[in-house]
Amino acid sequence: MNDIFRGMLELKAEHMLASVGEGTPFFFASPEETMLAEGHFATVPAAANLQELSALVEAELQKAVEAGHPDPVVVGAIPFDVGQPASLIIPEKVLRAGPLSRYVELPGLSAKTEVEAACEVRPVPTPQVYAAGVQEAVERIRQGELSKVVLARTLELEAAQPIDLQGLLRKLAQSNSRGYTFAVSINDRQGALVGASPELLLSRHGNQIRSNPLAGSAARTRDLQENMRRSQALLLSEKDLHEHKMVADAVVQALTPYCRSLYAPAGPSLVNTETMLHLASDIRGELADPSVSSLQLASSMHPTPAVCGYPFAAAREMIAEIEPFERGLYAGMVGWCDAHGNGEWVVTLRCAEVSGKQVRLFAGAGVVADSDPAHELAETGAKFRTMLNALGIANVGEA
């Protein structure tokens, strides 16, 4: 019976994916469940900061309950720059199922996403300019301005044909089954934010909370022995361990005031994705006050040093000075929160903005005093591979 029930859940999840289009408000697949939003009930108004946004979300959910909505859930994405507007709505309905199967294919669900090799690619900034920005950051970190900053770059692609959103999500889910595959309609323009994040910012189910921060990375190869060597080197790297500790400590510091108990491991473990090796800390706790929502908890940590730097204000200022583009929803958070405060929010990584034939990919790397510009450039190239592989594009992003 268990196998039959599991098969029914997988089939429903596959059908949910098969109905995703560019106008779909929200699709979210975690290792435990799949969610699909349908229709539009209300839009969460713009807010000046995350504290105000959390209050507005709570108010909109309460209004939806009073208006007779049977199960209101806020879904969507929040940008890196908390002063910019979020893309959050309450849909008419949220369908839920078990996790997506990596193997089941349905008629009508295309797995073809290949983009022609001749597609136009424009890096912003150029690799040379990005490396120079990393070098500038290293010098300023050594002068004592800050301890860490995360610098990102983008790839702007234009394909010959519109991107197959369903096929793209399918490949992302198949290749990153331990992560979080998502598609979010962007409020202020056409298109969707699509990605496969490996990093759980915060989940809350009842009084139990969990965060799984990642920091300290190395590119994964197809050679098993080389991956083992890189894994051991990462676990022993003083530079990467220092970078990870900064992030894990910041998460613990943010969550401690809300928790009756909180457990954080003494040191990081290793998490593998299709393209990367990451240092990770599995942090779990029990809430002292059950009225605190998942969004409030996630907001208390956002943005973490894993996507911004430390101290926050100095890192945010340096990002604005060096990066020649607006991050938008990249390095923000994407997820959901229901009227009971339960929810799940992941860091918006390994993602791209997709609109018709156009795709804009994002990738960043943490810069500390011991960083090497060539290494950080190569790391962003490796991180691009999650989306590039799903798009069927080779030999782009490493340079």
UniProtKB/TrEMBL annotation:
Give its E.C. classification number.
Answer: 5.4.4.2
Q: Which UniProt keywords apply?
A: Isomerase
Q: Which domain of life is it from?
A: Bacteria
Question: Does the record's keyword annotation contain Isomerase?
Answer: yes
Listed under catalytic activity are:
chorismate = isochorismate
Q: EC top class, in one word?
A: isomerase
| A GO MF term | isochorismate synthase activity
Residue ranges of domain Chorismate-utilising enzyme C-terminal in the record: 128-383
PANTHER family the UniProt entry points to: ISOCHORISMATE SYNTHASE ENTC
| Annotated family | Belongs to the isochorismate synthase family.
Please report the name of this protein according to its UniProt entry.
isochorismate synthase
Q: Name the species this protein comes from.
A: Methylobacillus rhizosphaerae
Supply the source organism's classification.
Bacteria, Pseudomonadati, Pseudomonadota, Betaproteobacteria, Nitrosomonadales
